[in-house]
Design a protein that fits this description.
This protein is an alpha/beta fold. The chain is built from four helices and eight strands; from the N terminus they run αββββαβαβββα. Pfam families: ABC_trans_aux (PF03886).
Length: about 200
């Protein structure tokens, strides 16, 4: 009798464990550059709008997508971005560029509503690939336009960051480093454009 009760209790615990849903984890692409020590007060010298940013349709989802074979992706239902990449990438880039250009007021394009920015940076993310335990690749075509919409500069950037640990967290950290490098390139171009106007 006691053995039957123990077996029944064990079976119930096993079934309950199987029925417990996996805990969903959320990730964000926080910036990796240290905050600028220079604090600028008053009116900025110029304004920069980052965006809009486009991402491949396969990545335009909340779930994190991994490249598991040359022609196969895996969509992780329990590993998710805290916000869509096409909103998070411009936010992170605005932070990165703003830290490098203290004389500029840098914001996401939607915050300006397309108005009032002296420069606008449009970004087309061509690849945002994550290969577990190996590497990430960020490939982007981007351009800088002036207030009139004239294209001042075009660029194509590719960043590969090695990942030596399993799991999603190292991949997310590597993507943050790649975005930091892209932010550095954008800031350098904007800085050269503003210097040329002086």
């Amino acid at each position: 009798m006691k053995l039957g009760a123990v077996l029944a209790a064990s079976l119930l615990l096993t079934l309950a464990a199987c029925a417990t849903p996996a805990k969903t984890r959320y990730y964000t692409l926080s910036g990796v550059s240290p905050p600028s020590a220079t604090e600028v007060t008053g009116v900025p010298d110029y304004r920069v709008a980052i965006g809009p940013v486009t991402v491949p349709d396969a990545l335009d989802r909340q779930q994190i997508v991994l490249r598991v074979a040359p022609n196969r992706n895996a969509i992780l239902d329990d590993e998710r971005w805290s916000e869509p990449l096409k909103r998070e990438i411009p936010r992170v880039l605005a932070e990165e560029v703003g830290q490098r250009l203290p004389a500029a007021r840098v914001a996401v394009y939607l915050q300006y509503g397309g108005q009032g920015a002296d420069y606008r940076v449009l970004i087309d993310v061509l690849s945002f690939e994550s290969v577990p335990g190996e590497s990430i690749t960020l490939e982007a075509a981007w351009s800088v336009r002036n207030r009139a919409g004239e294209r001042l500069r075009e660029a194509h950037s590719v960043f590969v960051e090695r990942v030596n640990a399993p799991g999603v967290t190292p991949l997310v950290s590597a993507h943050a480093k790649a975005l930091d490098a892209l932010g550095r390139e954008i800031a350098e171009v904007l800085d050269s454009l503003t210097r040329a106007k002086r």
